[in-house]
Write a structure and sequence with these properties.
The complex is a heterodimer of chains A (about 775) and B (about 280). Chain A is about 30% helix and about 25% strand. Chain A contains 18 helices and 28 strands. Chain B has helices at about 10-20, 75-80, 80-85, 90-95, 100-105, 110-115, 120-125, 145-150, 170-175, 230-235, 240-250, 265-285; strands spanning about 5, 25, 45-50, 60, 65-70, 130-135, 140-145, 150, 155, 160-170, 180-185, 195-205, 210-220, 225. The longest helix of chain B has 18 residues, at about 265-285. Classes of the chains: A alpha+beta (about 775), B alpha+beta (about 280). The complex binds flavin-adenine dinucleotide. Flavin-adenine dinucleotide binds near residues 31, 97, 106 and 114 of chain B.
Amino acid sequence: MSVPTHSPADVAVGRSPPRVDGAAKVSGRALYVDDLPCEDAWHGATVRSSVPHGRLRGVHLDRAFDWSDVTVVTAADIRGCNVVSLIEGDQPALVPVGGTIRHVAEPVALVAASTRARAFAAAAAVRLEVDELPAALDLDAALRADALVHGDDNVMKTLRIAKGDEVERALAGCDLVIEGVYETGAQEQMYIEPQGMLAHWDEHGACHVTGSMQCPYYVHSAMKVLFGLDDAHAIVTQAVTGGGFGGKEEYPSMLALHAALLARAAGRPVKIVYDREEDVAATTKRHPSRVRHRLGLMRDGTFVAADVDLVLDGGAYVTLTPVVLSRAVLHAAGPYRLPHVRVVGRALATNTPPHGAFRGFGAPQAIFATERQVDRAARALGVDPWELRRKNALRAGDTTSTGQVLEHSVGSLAVLDALRRVAPSPRPDHEGSSSPAWPPPRDELPDVRLGSPVRRGRGIAFCMHGAGFTGSGEQRLAGRASVATRPDGGFEVRSSSTDIGQGAFTTFAQIAADALGVDGARVSVLEPTTDRVPDSGPTVASRTCMVVGKVVEDAATALRAHLLAWGRAHGLSGADLGEIARAHVRDVGEAERTVTYAPPPGIAWDDESYTGSAYPVYGWAACLVDVAVDDDTHEVTIERCVHAVDVGHAIHPVMVQGQIEGGTLQALGWALLEAVKYGGGRVLNPRMTDCIIPTSADAPKMETLLVESPYPFGPHGAKGVGEIPMDGPAAAAANALADALGIEPACVPMLPETIAAARAAREGAT
Amino acid sequence: MTTPWIRPATLDEALAVREEHADWRVLAGGTDLMVDAGRRPAPAGVIDLFGLPGLVGVEPMRDGSLRIGAATTYSMLLASDDVRRHLPLLAAVAREVGAWQIQARGTLGGNVGTCSPVGDTLPALLALDAEVELVSRKGVRLVAFDDFCTGYRTTDLRPGELIAALRFGRRALFASEGARHAWRKVGTRRAQSVSKVMLAAVAVLDDERRITCARLGLGAVRERPVRARAAEDLLVGERADAALAQRASEALTHDIAPIDDVRSTAAYRRDVAARLVRRFVLSLA
Ligand SMILES: Cc1cc2nc3c(=O)[nH]c(=O)nc-3n(C[C@H](O)[C@H](O)[C@H](O)COP(=O)(O)OP(=O)(O)OC[C@H]3O[C@@H](n4cnc5c(N)ncnc54)[C@H](O)[C@@H]3O)c2cc1C
């Protein structure tokens, strides 16, 4: 793709400077939590349940084991409130004796010892006495209430959207109603660095935890609640973090509590670092979903009504599920003009490890259903699926399903048109039936690969994605960030937003540099530590660059104004800002400006009726996927993938393109390869061997089209982009399969085994 | 605490250690052994054969056979003119094992030593009538790979023995004018992938396109790599056409017994194995 160059050479935004974290990471100097020097730290291990549902009768230490050099912690050692505090306080840090075990990976006891091997041996010598209870292991079992995991019906949360007339009446007036049921499976984030945390208590009774995380202040609140600490005595620091994708939004709180409990009991630092197997088995994944969708339209293609019934499998505890459900519900009507909408979303509790945040946060599940439906409608009408989408696309001035009037930065038609410009035909580019060669032929090697014929197809998907927190979330969060002078005349950005590989620190440095009017190299970003950075809100929801980036910009602007005024008053008119900063620090100390997020005007949300401005602004995306499906093996090759995304403004074009490519590949993996398999409530494939994600060999060449409809309240017009690439590609791939094979894929992942069964069913039917 | 680790300089030395320490682990590339090593008790000792001169390399023998040392890596196989020319099937297999890192480290002998149903070279060894050359201080023993593999991850490796090489005695036939080779790995993805179904096939056609010799090696379709003998028998003496292809694919049921597991389903494996055999026979028409 061509990287747009908007900016003159002396500003940072719009150019692609080297990442501030890049050199340390590629050279191996970056210190992840497991690398932090801490010689006297003991290693912690977790004793987990082995049944999905049961009553804990006792925790016994094997007498044959030598416990003299091992620290053991159970719920009985928790003096305060035994809870991992989040939305609801339903999840204990450790299940107490007499309490209920609700999933197989539930932590029951902790051990620490001087070596990892010793800790694992000790953990294996802890025996749990459990009365097993019947379990509800999936959505159907939860609906039937095979076992009660939550309340009296297993429903954690219900949300409703209603727009226009009563939906049955509206559907009755349609020429055509497309109905379908769609299911999606769990997805593992598979960040490169498994979760880990290091904790120690200092002589003032403060607990310091450092680890791999997205949201230091979430960990901070959890620590305060369980240990009854005040703000100053819980000090949470983000270590260099190897990816998160939502998986390190909430679970690090659990690890922090565990490490801190062990550290207190052992009287020394304790480190818990999961290996891959434990990480996959115990931590959160994308919510499995089932969506029943009815789309009513007129013969001319005009959409009239949508009726969506959506259920999510929340797992055993509430965690973030209500918020995920909210985003699913708010995205269920898609990016379309629909006068009449009904959405009912329910989150159910099951006896599986809790599902949680994963890039897209409920939206990809809902959008998969919507975009399959639109495709089926196009086929039913015999029209080009792109035309049908464009005809019904929301435009500036239109209202969404919650009645929000779209005022600015509506790139809907722009992304669709950008897609069409590079891929004008509704047919795939490579006609013919020869199989795409894999591995690619190599001159010196004889070609003995047994080839098979293929069928080709093209699919597209179109979506919008709300940027920032849902509803009044941003007002409630009131994220803050600071910019301050450094003694050397440089500047420092202080925020709790974490760089988890997405490049937040680099964009913050760019934004601050331009607002200060200094060179980017003179701005650094402080490592997020709760006693030194304000609460900027969590690093989630495509909000960091757009929301916190704007706050950083404002803080930098305020600091510059202050320094210039101070400089004028102290005989430094016309001096370089760095010089003034140095003088300021020398003469009167550090100058710091902290700004709190102010919502754009006109944002109003009503949680009761679920109406109003669901999000401050939306990103828009259109995705195209060409597939070739092997006639013998049903393996799918992606021959072309184009993604047009409205990012508002590209602060760092190379990184934003990277975000889009990575998210697209993650979505294609979810669509075609990634299956987390469960048996008895346990993950059956908790290792990278079998819980697979795409490799570079599976990645198609990506064509990324950056579309820029600036958001007036974002830094330089930028808006959220982290999640939107995850939304459309699965549906685009499914639509391409439908085009290629005449099947109607209704589930994710669409593995070759699934496709084989669908093709066999179709052949059987004709 | 630390495990004794010996890197013998010669094959003789290796055999001496092997005889002396029956419970020590033989290690070549370690790409099978090191997976999970942390979860198993440490071995009593390790005999590290990686790079051992007598075990590395591809050698055309005077009797016309090709001999590939057990510690030869996949990268070496790919770089070998002899392998490319005479055993194109094996070159094709090597290219799809793991990815570059594994190819640089993993060995042919290690694949045979593990003898997993999903070992990628094993169907090709079956299709190429490979023999395993086993050495001990008592001498050399040659066993057809089909016999050496005795079941799910079990072999006929005896105490004191090492795998010295794989021998391909029929390369003249299998590299002749009328020979056709075909390889297809159906994995979970394109690289670093565990196979769900594999077919390594060799057929030799006479001047009238009659099949004079057929080998169908299959992997991941039962507890061990297997030859589809019923299908092979049915092909010999025939000319390939659609009907023959169909019959051969149906005859597979005699030799395969796929299962459901986390990677795939029995139904898929059965169906795809049949389709690949059909495709191969059609390619001979
Ligand atoms: C990421 C990854 C990807 C992989 N991908 C593939 C793949 O695509 N296809 C595939 O087939 N395999 C794959 N493997 C498995 C492995 O790489 C192969 O089986 C490889 O050939 C093993 O060779 P090695 O030399 O590393 O064996 P090692 O691990 O050293 O040994 C394996 C076994 O063989 C025995 N052994 C080795 N050499 C001898 C000898 N000379 N005499 C007697 N016994 C011996 C050992 O004792 C051990 O039991 C993969 C492994 C990994 C980690």
